[in-house]
Design brief:
- By secondary structure, this protein is of the alpha+beta class.
- Helices cover 32% and strands 20% of the residues.
- The protein folds into three domains: 2-10 and 26-84, Tumor Necrosis Factor Receptor, subunit A, domain 2 (Ribbon), CATH 2.10.50; 92-122, no CATH class; 187-299.
- It has helices spanning 2-21, 197-201, 205-211, 216-225, 242-255, 258-270, 274-299, and strands spanning 29-33, 40-44, 50-54, 63-66, 71-72, 83-84, 92-96, 105-108, 112-115, 120-123, 131-135, 144-147, 152-153, 164-165, 175-178, 187-189.
- The strands form eight sheets. A two-stranded antiparallel ribbon has the order 1-2. Strands 3-4 form a two-stranded antiparallel sheet. A two-stranded antiparallel sheet has the order 5-6.
- The longest helix is centred in the C-terminal third of the chain and has 26 residues, at 274-299.
- It holds the Pfam family TNFR_c6.
- Keywords: Apoptosis, Disulfide bond, Glycoprotein, Repeat, Secreted, Signal.
- Residues 66-106, 107-145 form the TNFR-Cys domain.
Length: 301
């Protein structure tokens, strides 16, 4: 019986919504049959924020009562109970609190947007390295990404980072030893304080692994094979996520020697990531070649 009553109340509200949607004013009265005389009666509807506690009769008006806390009615009505306020779903927050005359409004929490495909709030997309954020995500829309233009780069996956301008080596009195790409900055060298070419490569190794997406299984093997001066090898890579594996790589790069960095392309090739290893080796070869040429030219002046 309760289900039937509630369905009737919802049908009444839906009818009123239909009138409003079609430009028809909602009537402020409704017709009932007097229980004593059997004659038709026009009873007053209850205003928004109230419900019909007792209908009218030939001797008394409709008895309307305020909606209890946690419930509402937003239209003139003659339903026997107020509607329960909605509860925000997963990954949602309250945008507007429920009031006696309106239901609460929900929106996706920060970092999420409503996806019509999934009918739920999902995480904002991250712009991969090589792309920057054109428009930040909102509760209603996903992040909009765009490829970095010539002279700019992005070296991380992010929901808010725009492409950054390549630094100018000449402006700082330095030599350009590796031209920047969409995923890494220009690499500059000081010929009066020359370092091994691998030391310059170190600056872009973490970004290299982020940009060149290596499968999880192979990346774990790479991390396990990273050369180290420590007697104890790092363990537990089977349980690490992509972000944790990249964190291990950044940590290793920060303390790796030039010789260990130079071994990295060969490790990748040995672990059947030949194309990726060859790309890294070409970067290193280009740095070595430019260091030799540019710094010799500078010394010969």
């Amino acid at each position: 019986m309760k289900v039937l009553i509630l369905s009737t109340e919802l049908l009444i509200l839906l009818s009123v919504r239909s009138w409003l949607a079609n430009g028809v004013a909602s009537p402020l009265t409704y017709e009932v049959t007097d229980r004593i005389t059997g004659n038709p009666l026009l009873c007053d509807r209850c205003p928004p924020g109230t419900f019909l506690r007792a209908r009218c009769s030939s001797t008394k008006k409709s008895d309307c009562a305020p909606c209890p806390q946690g419930s509402f009615t937003e239209l003139w009505n003659y339903i026997g109970r107020c509607l329960r306020c909605a509860v925000c779903g997963r990954n949602q927050v309250v945008k507007k609190e429920c009031t006696p005359i309106s239901d609460c409004q929900c929106e996706c929490k920060p970092g999420y947007f409503y996806s019509q495909d999934y009918d739920m709030c999902v995480r904002h997309s991250e712009c991969p390295s090589g792309q920057g954020v054109l428009t930040k995500g909102t509760p209603e829309r996903d992040t909009v990404c765009g490829m970095c233009s010539v002279g700019t780069f992005s070296d991380i996956s992010s929901t808010d980072q725009i492409c950054t301008q390549h630094k100018s080596c000449s402006a700082a009195g330095l030599q350009l030893v590796l031209k920047g790409a969409i995923w890494h900055d220009n690499l500059c060298a000081n010929c009066t304080d020359l370092k091994d070419g691998a030391e310059y490569l170190k600056e872009i190794v973490p970004a290299f692994f982020i940009h060149h997406k290596i499968k999880m299984k192979r990346l774990r093997r790479v991390v396990n094979k990273l050369p180290s001066d420590n007697v104890r090898k790092q363990e537990g890579t089977l349980e690490l996520s992509f972000s944790e594996l990249h964190s291990r790589i950044r940590s290793w790069v920060s303390s790796a020697t030039s010789m260990q960095i130079r071994q990295l392309p060969a490790i990748l090739i040995k672990l059947r990531a030949s194309h990726t290893g060859e790309k890294l080796q070409k970067k290193l070869n280009r740095i070595d070649k430019n260091l030799l040429r540019l710094c010799q030219e500078m010394i010969g002046r």
